[in-house]
UniProtKB/TrEMBL annotation:
Designated name of the protein: Winged helix-turn-helix transcriptional regulator
Organism: Porcincola intestinalis
Keyword line: DNA-binding, Transcription, Transcription regulation
Entries under PROSITE patterns matching the protein: HTH_ARSR_2
InterPro entries xref list: ArsR-like_HTH, AsnC-type_HTH_dom, HTH_ArsR_DNA-bd_dom, Metal_resp_trans_reg, WH-like_DNA-bd_sf, WH_DNA-bd_sf
């Protein structure tokens, strides 16, 4: 899987795909899985000399891999497809005037209280063992990009580097999340609560924990019966109240929070014991789920 966000990264890919011969090579490798250079040359009616530059372009764009097969006399070169998914992003991120934007990795919480089932993982491996809350305090947690628990909370200290003589007019957080079921279950409601500096902003009920198909960015080594992807949700607090994806969920307004450029800002995700549906929480960060993003925070302000 490869995620290309900038035009400069996409040029080499488009160059590699801009040939009928190279497209035929990719089709053959996708169908066969693995072929020798000799087999490819015979199928395409090309000489080895004519085939080689095409293979090199595909290898340079990370579309194929070349391996030496020691089981064959003479260490025959074998070709195989390397990427099964490529995602291209053409839109450019923009920051509005008088807006401070930041992103925090899932594992960079400042405090937590975790109850099983639970787990925390980097893009490469599980941290410690699943269902052991002690690993949520492991030093490697700062590298984590996914975590899940049945009840409890994680709280993040949000950067707020804005001019000191400013008034915060809006606060928003964007994150991919879902419930946490044993295994996966699309019908597993969970009441997820959101708080800022100890004040409850509101609650949203996640419909389930999804695993019907692999997440677009979830690593290939990830078990198929584990959390695969979530829903991308945006919580916004402004002078009119608190909104989840433009639907108001509470009257809690930005002026009620008493936050400023001089006060620390702590944002909490929680599933309390008192919730009607204690169905857990999964937070997906970069390298997991369908959106390949960290937890994104935006603070709008006015200069006073």
């Amino acid at each position: 899987m490869r995620y290309l966000k900038h035009i400069s990264e996409q040029a080499e890919l488009f160059n590699a795909l801009g040939s009928e011969v190279r497209l035929q090579i990719l089709n053959l490798l996708q169908a066969k899985g693995r072929m020798s250079m000799n087999e490819l040359a015979d199928k395409l009616g090309l000489s080895q000399g004519a085939l080689t530059p095409h293979i090199r372009k595909l290898e340079s764009a990370d579309l194929v891999r070349i391996n030496q097969d020691a089981m064959v006399h003479g260490n025959m070169k074998m070709c195989e497809p390397h990427l099964d998914k490529i995602f291209l992003v053409f839109s450019q991120e923009t920051t509005r005037q008088n807006e401070y934007a930041s992103h925090i990795r899932v594992g960079q919480y400042s405090s937590c209280e975790i109850y099983p089932t639970c787990g925390i993982s980097t893009e490469k491996s599980i941290i410690g063992e699943v269902d052991d809350p002690r690993y949520f305090t492991h030093q490697k947690r700062f590298e984590a990009d996914i975590l899940w628990f049945t009840r409890g909370f994680v709280e993040y200290m949000v950067p707020c580097i804005i001019p000191r003589s400013s008034r915060i007019t809006e606060f928003s957080v964007s994150v991919e999340l879902s419930s946490e079921a044993p295994g996966v279950n699309a019908n597993w409601p969970s009441d997820i609560y959101f708080s800022l500096n100890g004040m409850l902003l509101g609650q949203w009920t996640s419909p389930g924990d999804y695993g019907d198909v692999p997440g677009r960015f979830t690593p290939d080594w990830w078990l198929s019966n584990w959390n695969q992807y979530g829903l991308l949700k945006t919580l916004t607090v402004n002078e009119k109240g608190t909104f989840m994806d433009d639907i108001q969920i509470s009257q809690a307004a930005i002026q009620d929070l008493n936050i400023s450029s001089r006060t620390p800002i702590y944002f909490r995700f929680s599933v309390p014991d008192s919730a009607e549906h204690v169905g857990g929480l999964t937070l997906f960060g970069r390298g997991f789920g369908n959106y390949n993003q960290d937890i994104e925070f935006h603070i709008q302000y006015e200069r006073e």
